[in-house]
């Protein structure tokens, strides 16, 4: 299968604080499949490191209150081009770009709210199936079904 995956989950140091979220258990599960690693914030041109981002009232803001929605939209569109023919995506939970179902609420106080990241919503709008790194059981089932 061809699977799009948030680059930070594969070990690239692309997070806002130059770290990654390498998930070895997930990568082990995906062995033998074609992985396309994408990072909407990197593709948008944010430096590494950069100020944390959150979404407030539908707009992406930095922790010092700069509005960067359009910039992240552009990075997301570039990433969509790379993964639009993938069988499904595995995206990093809670991120303002890659989060699925829950994201931080725009107050930079570590508070979650319902919602999707900018890139995730674009992918959903384009009919792509989304999982996060917390959906290992569902991903296993997806891979078993595909191997039949
Ligand atoms: S934008 Fe997505 S891939 Fe890039 S660091 Fe954030 S969560 Fe990871």
Describe this entry's structure for a reader:
The chain is of the alpha/beta class. It has helices at about 25-30, 40-45, 70-85, 120-125, 135-145, and strands spanning about 1-5, 35-40, 55, 60, 90, 100-105, 110-115, 130. The strands form three sheets. The protein has a four-stranded parallel beta sheet with strand order 2-1-5-8, with helices on both faces. Strands 3-4 form a two-stranded antiparallel ribbon. Helix 3 packs across helix 4 (about 120-125). The longest helix is centred in the middle third of the chain and has 15 residues, at about 70-85. The chain is globular, with a radius of gyration of 15 Å. It starts with a strand and ends with a helix. The structure holds iron/sulfur cluster (SF4). Iron/sulfur cluster (SF4) binds near residues 8, 41 and 92.
